[in-house]
Design goal:
Blueprint (H helix, E strand, L loop, with lengths): L3 H10 L3 H15 L6 H14 L5 H10 L3 H16 L10 H5 L7 H11 L4 E2 H10 L10 H11 L3 E3 L4 E4 L2 H12 L16 H18 L4 H14 L3 H8 L2 H9 L5 H16 L4 H20 L5 H15 L7 H12 L15
Antiparallel strand pairs: 1-3, 2-3
């Protein structure tokens, strides 16, 4: 970007009102770097609003201007965030989880960024703080609301809260920087395969997936568990756990009680079945055992009051799986299964049926 006025305009619009008055002091530094992209200018301008609390902002500006690429710029900013807002656990207080996480930039800020990076749909603030507590940041090492607010204020332009309350990265460049600098992986997290041999970097990523598995196994909000738990089981290669989850009576019951399952819900259920089939799991047999358990429970209810429609629907689902139509693919059968589950009626209305 060679137009100086345009460059200054982009830079100024991302500065706060007090910073506008100091903008003139930054002009000489900006003039020395003619080839600045809008993204780089935006990142630097937003960072200058916060770095002065702990550092000399003009020294930071000079350092940021010296780097040649966006990834290198994010590395400097991640380093500042980790050093200025976070801390490491003392060795005798570190849990086995922390030891497994490996070396490099570390501390609760780095851990929080890694957790956000590998989450499926994002994480809520209270979830992140609870997970950090699990990792050992408790008592006098606890990440308090004040500590968290300071970091959130510094990263507010790049870590934003969605309408559902979940935090996520606003720009792919930050996600990529966290993957490479903090997680140490080359392949993007969402494109990585569980069949790739485990090296040190993959082990660190797998470690954080396992941490989230343990957390969401305790989760009382069923929908959040459905969003996150099977994803982390898949990404860490926990096939037995994934098979047990997606074929459990609870999941079967949950899906059947949603009046109109979203496309996201249905596609992910089918996706996890496909993954399990590729991994060689006998997922059909596991599901039939789950249906049998539901049928047994419904039979007990029938003794108390008529539930013919619900029983008939369950039998139809079981029949569809035991006797699939000729030439039907596994994926098609799974779609039919998901569709059929919608019609497994129950006399009681479960509060979870209100979601989505």
């Amino acid at each position: 970007m060679g137009d100086e006025d345009t460059k200054f305009s982009i830079f100024r619009q991302h500065l706060s009102v007090p910073d506008q008055e100091r903008f003139g002091q930054s002009k000489p530094i900006l003039r020395k770097k003619p080839n600045l992209t809008p993204l780089k200018l935006t990142i630097i301008a937003s960072e200058l609003q916060e770095c002065r609390i702990y550092r000399n902002e003009f020294q930071c500006l000079r350092e940021y201007m010296e780097v040649a690429s966006i990834p290198e710029l994010w590395e400097l900013i991640l380093k500042r965030w980790v050093e200025d807002y976070g801390w490491n656990l003392k060795h005798n207080e570190a849990t086995s989880d922390m030891v497994a996480a490996g070396k490099g930039l570390s501390g609760w800020v780095a851990d929080a960024l890694c957790l956000l990076c590998i989450s499926h749909c994002g994480l809520a603030e209270d979830e992140l703080l609870q997970i950090l507590d699990m990792l050992g940041y408790r008592n006098h090492q606890k990440v308090t609301a004040v500590h968290w607010a300071a970091f959130r204020n510094a990263s507010k332009h790049w870590i934003q809260e969605k309408p559902n309350g979940l935090l996520c990265f606003w720009h792919q460049s930050l996600r990529s920087a966290v993957e490479h600098k903090l997680l140490g992986v080359i392949t993007p997290v969402r494109e990585s395969s569980t069949h790739v041999p485990q090296n040190t970097a993959n082990h660190k990523k797998t470690h954080f997936h396992q941490v989230l598995i343990r957390y969401f196994q305790r989760q009382t909000v069923f929908w959040r568990a459905y969003q996150e738990l099977p994803w982390h089981m898949k990404m860490s290669g926990s096939w037995e756990g994934l098979c047990s989850f997606v074929t459990s009576p609870g999941i079967t019951d949950f899906i059947s009680k949603i009046h109109n399952p979203s496309l996201w819900t249905r596609l992910h259920l089918v996706h996890y079945w496909d993954v399990l089939l590729e991994a060689g799991c006998d997922v059909s047999e596991a599901f039939l055992l789950s249906v049998a358990k539901i049928e047994a429970e419904q039979y007990q209810r029938i003794k108390k009051r008529p539930m013919l429609s619900g029983t008939l629907a369950t039998v139809q689902v079981t029949h569809a799986f035991r006797y699939p139509s000729n030439g039907a693919s596994d994926a098609c059968s799974q779609v039919q299964l998901t569709h059929a589950l919608r019609y497994t009626s129950h006399s009681a209305v479960d509060p979870r049926s209100q979601v989505r």
